[in-house]
Design a protein that fits this description.
Layout (H helix, E strand, L loop, with lengths): L8 H33 L5 H44 L4 H6 L2 H43 L1 H48 L1 H6 L3 H53 L5 H42 L37 E8 L8 E8 L4 E5 L6 H8 L7 E6 L2 E2 H4 L1 H5 L2 E4 L10 H5 L8 H10 L3 H6 L17 H14 L4 E5 L7 H14 L4 E5 L11 E6 L2 E6 L1 H7 L1 H9 L16
């Protein structure tokens, strides 16, 4: 809690001071009431004392209101800071962490868990401090008025404290279980909503509702256990307060009858006993709330402790690896000694230790050249892209950008040079313009129009009401799969990358658009290096170089005709798609 409130301690001090000032005014009221009772008994005027009592009430209420507002505002500030830190952390986690944790559960830590932490900060923390101090002040004044009655009150409160202490561990365990269950509910619901078409088609609504319902029942059970402990704790506190009040009333009344004390002393003591009830109740409630909040804060701390991507020792290399300008001359030849835009040298990698996916991959992608990766499913093609995008680091071997090892360049510099269009085309809620200009938010209108034309999106822009300003819906629900693919391609081209990665670019395209994309890729290759993954070899048979991957290894490399003649695996892939050798500059035949 001390670390959590860093930067807010001055505000906490002000809030505590206001609360204590209000409490001090409250503690003064029984003394004023005592003097009023004594003055009335001796026939003196009590109106000045009653006026003073009313003024104390008013100032106490105003001070308490200001103090509570300061506390609530501080609590919101702490949670804001905590959520900013969590969001920044979660967006920069190592990709392996997303494989280990459910994303809905991580989202719940930003929302539900931090809300519970806010209650601890804005209520429990100050209630513990001020409640303890106010209770101490009341006890001191009660000891001054009547030590014997104080001992009776202390015995009653101690019994309640023992009961409360025995329940705290159970409250914390139940709260942790409940928060984990809430995180599981969020994760399962996020998964189900993301796969809603699949669920509807297979009529699995009842099954998914039942699975999520089991999580809800788990959270319900944990909540009931926490409520059971709380239901015992609250009456214990109430009985202690009411019991002590009755004891004071009975014993104190008998002592007044025996002339062992004055009526004013008894009234003052009773008022202090009632005043003691509120801070004691707040302290006991705060202790229980802290136990529940510690479970939530433990989950928040766990998320804040997850490893993030290192920024790299020399991310200043962005300048050295700035995107290369497009060359207008198609016939331009690169200098023979210029390093390739991308090179892999004997790269080994596995997502799980002991289970390698890549077993020694090596190839080059020269500037303004079209290179294709082909192979059977599971050969490691998408994993190569994940390494090039620096989502993961090789177990051994080297990935080079412009002749420099990636670890020397830094992630920011590497990613500043590439653009990626993967199989899962990401279209976010917003306008079509927002999605195209995502990588370059301040892009000029003519640049946006250029990539719209290059990606063959003119028909989509003309069809949508509002054109580029049309809202495309959650996950691009108003666009077809092929249209989403072309939006992602336009977004990538707008950044003018030095290396463009296309993962299955024709997976959602029909034959006409596939042929159009082949022409687009030929044009793009004149501006930047192009690395394409394709199962449909018709898309890449005109590539400058084709790399064949098999079982995580580089099996062969060359042009389409060479591989057809020399590599059995490529020939098998081409034969299954009825591809023939390309002659001259003929257009790709595609599948028949």
């Amino acid at each position: 809690m001390y670390r959590l409130t860093a930067g807010h301690r001055a505000v906490i001090g002000v809030a505590c001071a206001l609360t204590l000032a209000g409490s001090a005014l409250g503690l003064a009221q029984p003394l004023v009431a005592k003097h009023a009772m004594d003055a009335s008994g001796h026939g003196r005027s009590v109106w000045p004392l009653l006026a003073l009592l009313g003024a104390l009430f008013a100032v106490e209420a105003a001070t308490g209101a200001v103090g509570r507002f300061v506390l609530e505002r501080m609590g919101e500030g702490v949670v804001r800071q905590l959520r900013h830190g969590l969001v920044a952390r979660l967006l920069r986690l190592e990709m392996r962490e997303y494989d280990r944790h459910r994303r809905g559960d991580l989202i719940a830590r930003v929302t539900a868990d931090t809300t519970l932490v806010r209650e601890v900060v804005s209520q429990a923390l100050v209630d513990l401090v001020t409640g303890s101090l106010v209770a101490s002040g009341a006890i001191i004044l009660m000891a001054w008025l009547d030590p014997l009655l104080l001992l009776l009150v202390a015995a009653t409160v101690a019994a309640a404290a023992v009961i409360v202490a025995s329940l705290l561990a159970g409250i914390r365990r139940a709260s942790e279980h409940m928060q984990n269950a809430v995180g599981d509910i969020a994760a399962d619901l996020e998964r189900s909503l993301g796969a809603l078409p699949l669920i509807r088609v297979h009529r699995a609504e009842e099954r998914e509702a039942s699975a999520i319902g089991a999580r809800i029942e788990d959270a319900y059970g944990a909540g009931v256990r926490a409520a059971k402990h709380a239901s015992v704790m609250s009456p214990a506190v109430e009985l202690a307060v009411q019991g002590s009040f009755l004891i004071v009333l009975v014993i104190g009344g008998l002592r007044v009858n025996d002339h062992a004390g004055s009526l004013g002393d008894l009234v003052a003591f009773l008022l202090y006993a009632s005043y003691l009830a509120l801070p004691l109740s707040s302290v006991f409630h705060a202790v229980g709330l802290v136990q529940r909040g510690m479970g939530a804060y433990g989950r928040v701390e766990e998320a804040l402790g997850l490893p993030v991507e290192p920024t790299g020792p020399r991310d200043a290399g962005v300048r050295a690896l700035a995107p290369r300008p497009a060359r207008p001359s198609v016939a331009h030849q690169e200098p023979a000694d210029e390093p390739p835009a991308l090179a892999l040298r004997d790269v080994h990698f596995g997502y799980v230790p002991g289970r390698p996916v890549l077993r020694g991959v090596s190839f080059d992608v020269a500037h303004r050249r079209h290179v294709a990766l082909v192979g059977r499913s599971g050969a490691g093609k998408s994993t190569v892209f994940a390494l090039v995008a620096r989502f993961y680091e090789p177990d051994s071997g080297t990935v080079l950008f412009g002749g420099r090892p990636a670890e020397e360049v830094g992630r920011a510099a590497c990613r500043g040079r590439i653009a990626l269009v993967d199989q899962n085309t990401h279209v976010v809620r917003g306008t079509l313009r927002d999605n195209i200009a995502y990588a370059v938010p301040n892009a000029a209108e003519d640049e946006i129009r250029r990539v719209v034309e290059l990606a063959r999106l003119e028909e989509v822009v003309d069809r949508l009401p509002g054109g580029l300003n049309a809202v495309v819906g959650e996950r691009g629900s108003t666009l077809s799969g092929g249209e989403r693919q072309r939006v992602a391609l336009a977004r990538a081209l707008l950044a003018r990358p030095s290396l463009l990665l296309l993962d299955e670019p024709t997976s959602h395209l029909d034959a006409i658009n596939e042929a159009a994309l082949t022409t687009v890729m030929k044009d793009v290759a004149q501006e930047c290096a192009l690395l394409v993954i394709a199962h449909r070899l018709s898309t890449v048979q005109h590539a400058d170089h084709i790399v064949v991957l098999h079982d995580g290894r580089t099996a062969a490399g060359g042009r389409h005709e060479e591989l057809l003649a020399e590599n059995a695996l490529y020939r098998e892939l081409a034969t299954s798609q009825m591809l023939r050798p390309v002659r001259g500059t003929a257009q790709p035949r595609g599948r028949r």
